[in-house]
Q: What sequence folds into this?
């Protein structure tokens, strides 16, 4: 394909090294090309670089082929020699000779196929040469697209579509399909590469496999077209199955198609397996057949103006007849003085005698003969403008022809009438026609062979689409203007003696179209069987579909042997269907799916303003891609809605499979950018308003401790997080490293991610490096999250052995974390003995007990509800305990709690436990009273929101001042309890405990003085004795209890 260059050794000069001559000799390839290595040796050994051959930066200069030298002694030596290291395509040879040379070396195969072919030779296997791509726009893009677009549908079905749909609707079908293809954005690298690198491996694999299936079924369609031409128009007597009755002819034809199609598939697969070089040799022949067939059709149209061809059509009444078994369109004819019946008479009557019993319609109507090709100026286009759709078995009739209907039409199917073999509709014809425009990717699939792919692919593809669109649209008009309507609707040419309908229009002979279409279909079938396995091999080698990895292997030269076997097997499925009209809509779905996602990928890249998306085509706009995507989706459902759903289901299954089992590939896909934009938009929306109470759920910051080897200490904390969140909401797994960020952060993050993966925890990792753990946890609580996606709850493990350790750092860190979480107005969840918590594989049965002592806004009741959503806790029941004093109305309290849970729609068992006031910690009791009094006071004062916050702050300030006074009075308020009980009461009263109001402290101290000794047992308030004793008590405290449940958090 490239020009041939020869490097001439330069004679040794005085100033050059004696080895210069030997080193200047560069290896000459068989095809005349110079290897880059040889070129580099020439530059290094020459001693100096010539200004005519290179620039200062070493890049080869585009020099003239003629060398001008002042030294007259060397003129004769260099005369006729071409010393250019690089030159343009048309510089050295005249344009006509160069074009003929490239046409002679034309191939419709991709670069990888040619390399496989060369690798089969001995020298090619020993020495690999690197060739610069030399194809231009015309040879590399325009002609392959033309050869792929113009094919079987044009020669075998376009005339039938024009006759069935009419000129106007056929023009609409062609325009719609061509517009759909015209809006497909032309990309470099092939559709699979572009989609997978733009939309990700999931979309790329799904659409790539759909494109592979479409290409494979296209091979089936071309093979079926080849066999149809062979059995119908070339050698009709070669049929293996012959129908004895007319009604069995269709089934016999399908069986013949299956037998011959399978044989043809095996032969083509064997040719591809043996070597694609044989396919390469015939590429120019196949292209010439397509071009000659098109030219013969246009020449025949022009000839109809001068002299229309003679193809008579016999009509019985207004019905078209199959012109197989008779030569004369007559009922009877006169020989001498006798009237005898003709062959036509014998087809409709039970005997050749004139008094025989004949078909009613045959007896009532006369036969007439019209010209099947009346010519361009005949005005027949007015009769072919409108559609003639009908069901299966509908007779082909000429409009306006006089006819008397018959009463009995039961025998029409057994008589030699021309009728529809399938039910026709506009949607069906769209699906059948669309494969004729599916060759637009031929240029982009050859991007590696092109000298300037970015310029050649858009230009060549658009020119090819424009050319083929003109050919199709002009053929629609010309067919309607030149051919009779009954002939157009005759799919197989039965009314014109089994001639190909488009062949009747061709000049000089119908055989030009028959032979040309036959070889065109053969070439297209071979090309499909050559390209589809390589597409499957590319997908398999990417490793995104695990079960396809075996198809990435092949022969030593890279030929995809296993992929070829799978392609032949799938292609055989289409051949067993044995109907070109049934296979065409199937491959239309897969190609439309591919084109849809090509447009989607381009639109997404443009809207996201991806930095590496820089299309050179200046007329491109993202609305063009959306228009093409909409047209593809519409055509899918117009042509066949059930095929469209099946194709989408197949693509969806492949997508989910790749997402679930496929290998991870990071190709910088646009879906990630789309997700990033959506996340940014959602975060901005979340910032606009605080979350509502009904949407509140714990957004967790999980504080993990790491051991010396950067391993997670408490892995069950992650299990508990998974069970609590169930994949919903925000989860941030944070850890603190003592040291520098650069040395340990990466290892710690990998350790956390592996632990999260093992425990199936969905969330984010956040590692902070700090000088100490206390500051690190503080930084995490302050900075974790982004915008509206911030945590509102902190989950941590209870420090182990904190009482027995000599170092108080763990205690102080824990206390400071509690303080900072409270200061940040966040909920704190502390998991004690977390290593004993159930794993994700366990299934628990029993009860989840909640001790609801301090009113916390419902968080304690929300946590077990969320836990029960997970399968680990799903069989557990919820049990709610609350504490009452001896003088409380516990029965009413239980009823109020049950009503409260009912209104919250929580299913839980309620139990009220009566305890002596001395058994309740001071902090718990006083904190409850503070909240109760605050709620009552705010209700009575009816303050505004700002005033309420100010009042709450004043109560808090007063409570802080009361801590000091409480510490001074602590010794006087201690009760004669045992050592354990004293520790439990004294701990909340420490300096790190709580804020207590003065009045509450005094009242609690008074109650302690009046209480007396601690009871030995806990009284359950729902006993009969307690009920009798409570009847005479005053119930003034009921108001306070009800207010307790009405408080807001």
A:
């Amino acid at each position: 394909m490239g020009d041939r260059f020869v490097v001439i050794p330069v004679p040794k000069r005085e100033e050059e090294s004696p080895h210069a001559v030997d080193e200047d000799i560069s290896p000459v390839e068989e095809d005349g090309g110079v290897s880059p290595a040889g070129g580099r040796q020439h530059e290094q050994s020459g001693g100096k670089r010539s200004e005519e051959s290179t620039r200062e930066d070493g890049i080869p200069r585009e020099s003239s082929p003629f060398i001008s030298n002042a030294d007259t002694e060397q003129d004769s030596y260099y005369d006729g020699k071409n010393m250019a290291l690089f030159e343009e395509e048309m510089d050295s040879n005249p344009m006509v000779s160069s074009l003929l040379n490239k046409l002679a070396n034309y191939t419709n195969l991709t670069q990888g196929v040619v390399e496989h072919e060369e690798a089969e030779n001995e020298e090619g296997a020993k020495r690999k040469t690197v060739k610069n791509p030399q194809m231009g726009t015309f040879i590399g893009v325009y002609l392959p697209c033309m050869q792929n677009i113009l094919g079987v549908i044009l020669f075998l079905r376009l005339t039938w579509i024009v006759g069935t749909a009419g000129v106007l609707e056929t023009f609409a079908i062609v325009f719609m399909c061509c517009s759909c293809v015209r809006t497909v954005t032309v990309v470099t690298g092939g559709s699979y590469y572009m989609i997978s690198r733009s939309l990700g491996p999931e979309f790329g694999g799904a659409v790539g496999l759909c494109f592979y299936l479409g290409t494979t079924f296209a091979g089936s369609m071309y093979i079926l077209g080849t066999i149809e031409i062979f059995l119908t128009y070339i050698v009709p007597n070669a049929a293996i199955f012959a129908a004895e009755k007319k009604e069995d002819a269709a089934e016999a034809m399908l069986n013949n198609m299956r037998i011959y199609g399978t044989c043809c598939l095996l032969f083509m697969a064997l040719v591809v397996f043996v070597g694609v070089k044989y396919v390469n040799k015939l590429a120019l022949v196949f292209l010439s057949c397509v071009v000659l067939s098109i030219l013969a059709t246009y020449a025949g149209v022009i000839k109809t103006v001068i002299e229309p061809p003679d193809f008579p059509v016999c009509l019985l009444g207004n019905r078209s007849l199959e012109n197989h078994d008779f030569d004369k369109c007559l009922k009877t004819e006169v020989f001498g003085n006798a009237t005898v019946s003709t062959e036509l008479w014998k087809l409709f009557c039970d005997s050749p005698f004139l008094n025989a019993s004949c078909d009613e319609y045959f007896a009532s109507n006369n036969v007439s003969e019209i010209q099947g090709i009346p010519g361009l100026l005949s005005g027949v286009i007015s009769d072919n403008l409108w559609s003639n759709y009908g069901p299966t078995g509908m007779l082909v009739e000429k409009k306006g022809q006089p006819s008397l209907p018959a009463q009995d039409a039961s025998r029409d199917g057994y008589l030699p009438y021309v009728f529809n073999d399938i039910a026709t509709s506009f949607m069906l014809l769209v699906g059948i026609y669309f494969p004729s425009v599916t060759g637009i990717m031929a240029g982009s699939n050859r991007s590696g062979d092109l000298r300037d792919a970015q310029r050649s692919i858009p230009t060549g593809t658009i020119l090819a689409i424009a050319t083929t669109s003109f050919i199709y649209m002009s053929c629609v008009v010309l067919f309607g203007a030149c051919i009779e309507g009954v002939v157009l609707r005759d799919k197989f040419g039965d009314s014109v003696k089994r001639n190909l309908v488009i062949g009747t229009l061709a000049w000089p002979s119908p055989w030009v179209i028959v032979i040309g279409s036959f070889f065109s279909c053969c070439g297209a079938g071979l090309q499909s069987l050559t390209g589809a396995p390589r597409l499957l091999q590319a997908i398999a080698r990417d490793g995104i579909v695990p079960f396809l990895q075996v198809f990435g292997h092949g022969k030593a030269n890279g030929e995809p042997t296993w992929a070829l076997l799978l392609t032949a097997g799938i292609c055989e499925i289409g051949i067993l269907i044995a109907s070109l009209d049934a296979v065409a809509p199937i491959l239309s779905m897969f190609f439309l799916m591919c084109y849809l996602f090509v447009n989607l990928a381009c639109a997404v890249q443009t809207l996201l303003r991806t930095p590496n998306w820089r299309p050179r085509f200046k007329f491109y706009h993202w609305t063009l891609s959306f228009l093409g995507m909409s047209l593809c989706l519409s055509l899918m459902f117009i042509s066949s809605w059930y095929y469209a759903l099946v194709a989408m289901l197949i693509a969806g299954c492949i997508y989910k499979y790749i997402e679930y089992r496929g290998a991870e590939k990071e190709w910088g896909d646009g879906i990630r950018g789309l997700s990033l934009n959506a996340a940014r938009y959602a975060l901005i929306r979340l910032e606009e308003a605080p979350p509502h109470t009904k949407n509140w759920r714990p957004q967790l910051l999980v504080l993990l401790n790491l051991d010396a080897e950067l391993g997670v200490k408490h892995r069950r904390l992650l299990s508990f997080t998974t069970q609590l969140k169930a994949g919903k909401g925000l989860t941030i797994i944070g850890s603190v490293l003592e040291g520098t960020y650069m040395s340990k952060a990466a290892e710690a993050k990998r350790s956390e991610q592996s632990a999260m993966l093992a425990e199936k925890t969905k969330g984010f990792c956040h590692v902070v490096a700090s000088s100490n753990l206390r500051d690190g946890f503080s930084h995490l609580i302050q900075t974790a999250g982004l915008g509206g996606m911030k945590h509102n709850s902190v989950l941590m493990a209870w420090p182990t052995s904190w009482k027995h350790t000599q170092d108080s750092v763990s205690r102080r860190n824990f206390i400071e974390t509690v303080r900072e979480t409270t200061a940040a107005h966040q909920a704190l969840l502390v998991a004690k003995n977390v290593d004993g918590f159930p794993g994700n594989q366990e299934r628990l049965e029993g009860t989840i007990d909640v001790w609801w002592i301090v009113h916390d806004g419902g968080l304690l009741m929300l946590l077990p509800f969320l836990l029960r959503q997970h399968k680990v806790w799903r069989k557990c029941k919820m049990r709610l305990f609350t504490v009452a004093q001896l003088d409380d109305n516990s029965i009413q309290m239980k009823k109020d709690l049950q009503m409260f849970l009912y209104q919250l729609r929580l299913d839980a068992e309620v139990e009220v436990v009566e305890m002596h006031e001395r058994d309740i910690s001071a902090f718990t009791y006083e904190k409850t009273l503070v909240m109760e009094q605050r709620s009552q006071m705010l209700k009575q004062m009816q303050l505004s929101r700002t005033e309420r916050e100010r009042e709450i702050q004043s109560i808090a300030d007063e409570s802080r001042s009361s801590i000091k006074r409480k510490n001074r009075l602590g010794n006087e308020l201690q009760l004669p309890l045992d050592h354990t009980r004293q520790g439990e009461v004294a701990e909340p009263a420490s300096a790190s405990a709580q804020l207590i109001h003065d009045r509450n402290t005094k009242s609690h101290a008074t109650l302690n003085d009046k209480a007396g000794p601690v009871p030995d047992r806990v009284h359950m308030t729902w006993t009969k004795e307690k009920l009798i004793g409570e009847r005479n008590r005053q119930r003034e405290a009921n108001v306070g209890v009800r207010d307790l449940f009405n408080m807001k958090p």
In short: Residues 879 and 909 are 5 Å apart (CA to CA). The longest strand covers residues 875-884. The radius of gyration is 44 Å.
